[in-house]
């Protein structure tokens, strides 16, 4: 029997975060949407104080506890499923504010996916400290977007150091990671251009490293409370052991180091899907409340032939969110149980990105002026929604990945 019931402990955390989002994120949502590039430091410091050592930020302590629990056969692993459920509650409050909070971020995910145990301990244990710290990942370049394998940033060994040169764009939390506290940016660069994808490796560049410079902050359509930066690396010298994993290019005919990129995305794409669900649910609930105020109830038990166009649209919106949620939980469950989830992660992100875009657009369409007005947050949610169909691989790229896996085609066979 398949059980979709959420465990009691996760339900309790879900309720707590929902109340937190309602009381602390929603009230300042509009303010920090309009004050782009200003940081809600009161919120950041409060969240850090509340979550320090709790594992909320993906700390080393939580991962050790999970390993111990696994040894003791303490029940099914649900760390990623729980993270997805909690991420949905936070983005229900505000996606931009959720993204601007301190934590390892994508950089931490890359370290977990490709770093040695010593590197995970060295870089991730700092998030246990009593001050906010940010991690970021830099992969996209001006001449390379969806095709991450085409990156041109180089890393050349020079004695006991690596020297990085190149430019990265659209780095989420790039400013905070590069300039605040003990942050770091994980940079994907090639150590051997002739090796193609096999020559791509990840490097940890710590805050304040000479040669790393934030050159631009993007002015964005949505998630405006979160900084998105361009970062330039010019003769940027980092310690030799800041390369994640092995520096060797073993087989130039295979993906090699690029597998680390994919492993990172397999872990983080379900979280992006979960974030999309929160925004979509916020729009759906607002629409339901607005309709009920006008005396319009959604008649779930009525015959399909008796439903109004609005009722059919609303049910379609709701169904798409439910389907995306189940795909997301499935991808997270597989990750928790160490089952390869490349196909399922892509499916979850593709479905959630498409669902949240359609749900928010339809919500504005149904409510008309009420949805378009800046007096309400719905117009903001439609702006926040679109990024979920773009970053960490566009919807089209996810569809391509799904097609390759389903048809068992290689990258060369299906582009």
Protein architecture, described:
- The structure is a single chain.
- The chain has 415 residues and is α+β, with helices and mostly antiparallel strands.
- The chain folds into 3 domains: 8-103, Butyryl-Coa Dehydrogenase, subunit A, domain 1; 135-244, Beta Barrel (Butyryl-CoA Dehydrogenase, subunit A, domain 2); 258-407, Butyryl-CoA Dehydrogenase, subunit A, domain 3, CATH 1.20.140.
- It contains 14 helices and 8 strands.
- The chain has helices at residues 8-34, 41-51, 60-71, 79-93, 95-100, 105-114, 117-124, 174-179, 258-293, 309-336, 342-367, 369-372, 378-386, 395-407, and strands at 135-138, 154-158, 161-172, 184-190, 200-206, 212-217, 228-239, 243-244.
- The strands form 2 sheets. A 4-stranded mixed beta sheet has the order 1-4-5-8. Strands 2-3-7-6 form a 4-stranded antiparallel beta sheet.
- Residues 55-60 have low confidence and may be disordered.
* CATH-assigned fold name of the largest domain: Butyryl-CoA Dehydrogenase, subunit A, domain 3
Shape: globular
**N-to-C terminal Cα separation, in Å?**
39 Å
The percentage helix is 40-55%
- CATH class assignment of the largest domain: Mainly Alpha
> Which strand order spans the largest sheet, edge to edge or round the barrel?
1-4-5-8
Total number of domains: 3
Element order, helices and strands? HHHHHHHEEEHEEEEEHHHHHH
CATH homologous superfamily annotation of the largest domain: Butyryl-CoA Dehydrogenase, subunit A, domain 3
Poorly predicted regions are 55-60
Q: Provide the β-strand percentage band.
A: 5-15%
Going by CATH, the architecture of the largest domain would be Up-down Bundle
Count of DSSP strands:
8
> How would a crystallographer describe the biggest sheet?
4 strands, mixed
Radius of gyration: 22 Å
Overall pLDDT score: 90
Content-based structural category:
alpha+beta
Number of helices: 14
């Amino acid at each position: 029997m398949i059980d979709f019931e959420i465990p009691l402990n996760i339900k309790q955390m879900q309720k707590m975060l929902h109340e937190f989002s309602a009381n602390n994120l929603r009230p300042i949502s509009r303010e920090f949407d309009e004050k782009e590039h200003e940081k809600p430091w009161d919120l950041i410091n409060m969240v850090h104080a509340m979550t320090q050592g709790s594992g909320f930020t993906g700390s080393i302590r939580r991962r050790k506890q999970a390993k111990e629990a696994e040894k003791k056969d303490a029940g099914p692993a649900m760390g990623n499923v729980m993270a997805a459920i909690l991420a949905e509650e936070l983005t229900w409050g505000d996606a931009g504010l959720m993204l601007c909070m301190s934590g390892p971020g994508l950089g931490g995910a890359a370290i977990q996916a490709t770093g040695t145990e010593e590197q995970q301990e060295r870089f991730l244990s700092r998030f246990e400290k009593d001050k906010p710290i940010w991690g970021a990942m830099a992969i996209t370049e001006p001449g390379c977007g969806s095709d991450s394998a085409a990156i041109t940033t180089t890393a050349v060994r020079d004695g006991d150091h690596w020297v990085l040169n190149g430019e990265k764009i659209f780095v989420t939390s790039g400013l905070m990671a590069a300039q605040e506290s003990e942050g770091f940016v994980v940079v994907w660069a090639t150590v051997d251009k002739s090796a193609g994808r096999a020559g791509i490796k990840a490097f940890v560049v710590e805050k304040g490293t000479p040669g790393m410079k934030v050159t631009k902050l993007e002015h964005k359509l949505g998630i405006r409370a979160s900084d998105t930066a361009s970062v330039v690396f010019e003769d940027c010298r980092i310690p030799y052991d800041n390369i994640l994993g092995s520096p060797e290019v073993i087989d130039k005919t295979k993906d090699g180091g690029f597998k680390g990129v994919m492993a990172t995305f397999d872990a983080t794409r379900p979280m992006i899907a979960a974030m999309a669900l929160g925004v979509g649910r916020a729009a759906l609930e607002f629409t339901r409340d607005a309709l009920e105020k006008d005396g319009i109830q959604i008649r779930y038990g009525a015959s399909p032939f008796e439903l109004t166009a609005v009722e059919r649209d609303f049910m379609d919106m709701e169904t798409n969110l439910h389907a995306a949620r189940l795909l997301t939980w499935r991808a997270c469950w597989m990750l928790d149980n160490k089952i390869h989830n490349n196909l399922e992660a892509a499916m979850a992100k593709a479905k959630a990105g498409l669902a949240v875009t359609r749900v928010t657009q339809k919500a504005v369409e149904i409510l008309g002026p009420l949805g378009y007005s800046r007096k309400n947050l719905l117009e903001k949610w439609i702006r926040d929604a679109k990024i979920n169909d773009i970053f960490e691989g566009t919807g089209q790229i996810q569809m391509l990945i799904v097609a390759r896996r389903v048809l068992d085609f290689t990258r060369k066979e299906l582009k």
